[in-house]
Amino acid sequence: MTALRSASSIDTIACVGAGTIGGGWAAYFLARGYRVKVWDPAEDAAEKLGRLIDAAWPALAELDMVEGADKSAFTVHRDLAEAVADAGFVQESAPENLQLKRELFAELDELTAPDVVIGSSTSGYPMTEMAVNLVHPERFVVGHPFNPPYLIPLVEVVGGELTDPAAVRWAAEFYELIGKSVILMEREVPGFIANRLQEALWREALHMIDQGEATVEQIDRSITDGPGLRWPMHGPMLTFHLAGGEGGMAHMLDHFGPSLKSPWTRLLAPELTGQLRDAVVAGCDLAAGERSFADLVAERDAGIVAIRKLAGGQR
Ligand SMILES: NC(=O)c1ccc[n+]([C@@H]2O[C@H](COP(=O)([O-])OP(=O)(O)OC[C@H]3O[C@@H](n4cnc5c(N)ncnc54)[C@H](O)[C@@H]3O)[C@@H](O)[C@H]2O)c1
After folding, report:
1. Cis preceding-peptide flag for 153 (omega within 30 of 0)
2. How far does the centroid of ligand 1 lie from the alpha carbon of residue 53, in Å?
3. Which of 15, 16, 20, when mutated, tests ligand 1's pocket best, judged by the most ligand atoms within 8 Å of its CB?
4. Mean pLDDT of 138-165
């Protein structure tokens, strides 16, 4: 593989796709002092991106911003070639559609120098399935963020069968260099790690709504006023280690192990009927109440900032 350019020499990053995630990445890269070039085919992309960066900036200023960061140091391009020209790294955040990603990767492969690493925000496609028919697939890496990428530190990094391990290491080091918490995965796992866990919860929640067993509001509160309060400090494993009392996880497993087989879960996905969709949407509208999208973003960001500050040294 061509030697990769040094991560510390990069001053310009291209964000391909600038919706919730690509726009959030753009805000984060700006806050870290990079120049950002954006490409997104939507007519209103520039306008939406401006709004997203404005909303993200106050929270970024509290936590991860470097001195001299300039929130206007971005340009939005009509032409993909122009957007990726002179970018030292590309973060792809186009819609989660396998064929679309394959076609876009082929374009990016052609338009970028082979020493440029391309990170994909995909929520679950293995790189092996996305990087097909490329001339230089060895520098395509998954860099899976969490919404909002400008505040949640975690990025899951994993390559595909054709990715050079050096590119995977490069991406992990690059994300760490810019202040992210990286999980470098040795092999491809559907949904990576965190989405696999989130999906399990999400499926159970949809089943409960579908069966009329819980409302949207009850499901959200069951986490925010319950187990969710423990998770910023300890993940699900250490949480259960403490739940075992002084006997720790060993007691936990011996005590509750048999109930693992209780028919509590229905992990197969429920049929996403129109009725279920409408019930979930209506429940969220009810939960949001008078709060607009912008109000909810501000509320979430202020909460994450406060929690990250509190969790401080441990995070
Ligand atoms: N939303 C999340 O919580 C989340 C979290 C982690 C990862 N992701 C992943 O990030 C990626 C983007 O998701 P999102 O939630 O930002 O979606 P989104 O719908 O908010 O944004 C997608 C953007 O891509 C643009 N777009 C459409 N066609 C394109 C193309 N051919 N090339 C480039 N851009 C194109 C759209 O105009 C839109 O602005 C997906 O792969 C998704 O799985 C999403």
Report:
1. no
2. 16
3. 20
4. 98
pLDDT in tens, 119-134: 999 999 999 999 999 9
Q: How far apart are CA 35 and CA 74, in angstroms?
A: 6
Q: State the Cα angle at 32 between 30 and 38, rounded to 5°.
A: 30
pLDDT digits (tens, 9 = 90+) for 241-281: 998 888 888 888 889 888 878 778 887 888 889 998 999 89
Q: Are 170 and 89 in contact (CB under 8 A)?
A: no
Residues with CB under 6 A from ligand 1: 16-22, 40-42, 45, 93-96, 100, 104, 121-123, 144-147
CATH topology of domain 7-184: Rossmann fold (3.40.50)
Task: Out of 43, 90, 93, give the residue to mutate to test ligand 1, the one with the largest number of ligand atoms within 8 Å of its CB.
Answer: 93
Question: Residue ranges per domain, the chain?
Answer: 7-184, 225-311
CA 92–ligand 1 middle distance (angstroms): 8
